[in-house]
Amino acid sequence: MRVVVDLNRCQAYAQCCYAAPERFVLRGDEILVYDPAPPEAERAAIDRAVLACPVRAIRVEHEPRERAA
Amino acid sequence: MRDGTIVVAGASLAALRGAEALRAGGFAGRLVLVGDEPHLPYDRPPLSKHVLTGEIAPGATTLPGVGALRAEWRLGAPAAGLDRAGRALLLAGGERLPFDRLLIATGARARPWPEAGAAALAGVHTLRGRDDAAALAAGLAARPGRVLILGAGFIGCEVASSIRALGLPVTVVDPAPSPLTAALGQVIGGFVAGRMEAAGIDLRMGAEVAHLEGGDGRVRRARLAGGGTIAADLVVVALGAVRNTEWLAGSGLDADEGGLSCDGACRALDAAGRPDDAVFAAGDVARFPHPVYDNRPVALEHWGNAVAQAAHAARAMLEGPEAAGPYAEMPAFWSSQFGLNIKSLGLTEGADAVAIVQGDPRSARFLAVYGREGRTIAAVAVNAGRWLPAYAGAIREGAPFPPITGGADQPHPDPVPPGLPAQAA
Amino acid sequence: MSDATLFAQVRDPAHRADPYPLYARLRACPVARQDDGTFVASGHAAIRALLHDPRVSSEDLPPAEHPATGNPVKDWIVNPLKDRIADRHRPFIFRDPPDHGALRRQVMAQFTVARVRGMKRRTEALVAECLDRCAGASTFDLVDDLAYPLPVTVICELLGVPREDETRFHAWATQLATALEPESRKDEALRARNTETFDAIADYMRDLIREKRRAPADDMLSGLATAKDPEVGRMSDPDLIATAILLLIAGHETTVNLIANGMLALLRHPDEFARLRADPERAPRVIEEVLRYDPPVHFRTRLARAPIPVAGTVIPEGAPLVLLFAAGNRDPARFPHPDRFDPDREDNQHFGFGGALHYCIGAPLARIEAEAALTALAARLRAPRLAEDPPPYRDGSSLRGPKRLRLVQGPAARPSA
Description:
The structure holds three protein chains of three kinds. By secondary structure, chain B is α/β, with parallel strands linked by helices.
């Protein structure tokens, strides 16, 4: 799974941290640290994080069909 | 345009988002992405932060969207030349890629240390790409006795923060009077300096490194221009970026190390300022007139600009420059360092005043607004991201400075000079 | 009828069941002055701008007042002192920065991810208990049998308030929830009742907090009563009491609407009910759409600290403001087909939990509770129908939700004997 957060949009509402605490953590007041490559097994939790974000700053792509370089 | 061939020179964030926007906009033809690195598009912001602290693997940052994009990839194949008359992109390997439209998103690279011999010493790093970050992380894993960072811009400061978090001794040297002076000025830079020193950074502002010296092929020390040396086993050269435009030499386009000039519809301009209807640019490499700032040409090394400008270029390619209109996305960036989340809207360049309009630097939560000739031009939030959106309108409209008064928690409304570098005329 | 009375009509119980046509008329002017001088923001962009504007104050409640008693000590010393303390220690929902931030941070420090996530299993078990109790009945009231008792039990356990005391503070909570209604700014009698209720619940909390300090447990009140913030130290007792009361009431009066409004939307869209039943993983989408389509809190009031230019008008200093979240959630300029209940909607940036500095602290808990409730209902109920549509509504126009939601189970599930 691939994850990227638009940190211009992020306002540290921390909803992703409650939805997928293994993959999203707030450090200090509002520095978001996240796993850009979470395991596919956590799909449901990551989807919850995407939907719960009040500014919809999280983008996910599931099961990447990697093209060879 | 719905069919034909579109080639994207570049395979980073702007290239990927531009290609996605082309597909989303209905482009059904052949789409080729050309990248000098062997990697699929990846995200750079973590490279100076959690990749260095070891929390994120360098290879984990491939961007979402890569899997679903219907495109051909030419990776590890740098663009080497542009035949505008023949509408073809020339690759380093000799391949010639004909196109109906070209999107140039070749980005920028780290400015190297000017002494080529010293720059090649083991232990001397720059940071731009994923491989740079992996090499730097490996160098840090050897627990160098002292890390020296040349340059206190955003990359230098973020790297200093990450390396300090590893518990390594860090010295930062920069001739400017404070960190982040060029972007934020000395008032906010001075605040950041305090945070850096509190974190244990040996901060040498107003100092300049003249030479890097090595022994046995490894960097050993830096010699300061004013005399004296700093011993260091690892050096990070963070002196800004150079736009990747050399390959455009001879194309007739207006390009230099400051960027490739383009118009509001992202069309590349030739030396006479005429747009090329087949060649577009987006992202770090593109130097465009910003309508919010009197159409001053700017080239922005911003994540958000790469995304928005690439989408704008895609629209102009498919529907024409008139339909796309002038690109006017509000400049925005973020940086995290030393426990601070710094978010910015607008451009501070040329500001003659700054006012801390909300919060208090003593609590490390505040918002500063920048003005020029009585107009609001930018805002910077430190650990106060939710306050920032209120200022976007004032910046866009150039509202009287300071723009919002009489609100809650506005204890320091008096503007002071921001301490930005003097403007070249 | 003049458009300057539209918000008064919103307040009229006659429109409680479906205020959305009035919201659509209000949105014709995204920030509209009402004839009483109140400005109502109903457009999505305007609400968003005002939520982030530092000139928009949450300190919009006038200070509490006590009717004269004739006892000079009480009238001149005790009550004014009490007012001053009450005024300085309002709950943080009615506070501005910097005080708001400090209090909120202290609450967030206790509302930890681990503590909230720890309630998930317990919530699911509580839902099962509630539904087991109704299992034999052909009709039941979703509000009384699930949507109300569930959040109350959850917030009591999380805070560390004895559940058996619920009978005492149920009435208090209902009374104090009226502080969110605009009348509370003007209606002397209502304010007096609220002050009286506040005093009663404050006494209760004071005793409870003393007990928590004596024997701290693993709950939020114990944490709030004993923790020391690195910047501002320990929370003062008046702030602690105000905070505890706020959390208790917020837990009582909001999630009940989310669950009831959610079930109501699903019953009115049986295809969505069936899809949720077939795929419980749709629950988060369904809940976000309920938060947009029919949110638990329809509006919040504010005060303009300074003149505010917005949406082509200028809100004058001192003007009362209404941020009509439920109208912004249906703004066609922001949401395609806004009146359609569509859980598959993308980019659903609703105001279901407000936004900016005052974004609902309890949002993650509300999502857990709503998901547990709606998925269990979808799994258990066979062809449920509404016994009355529209259902009767509670009084509140801000905290708006059904008073009862009587469900009838379909005949297929319960063959008659």
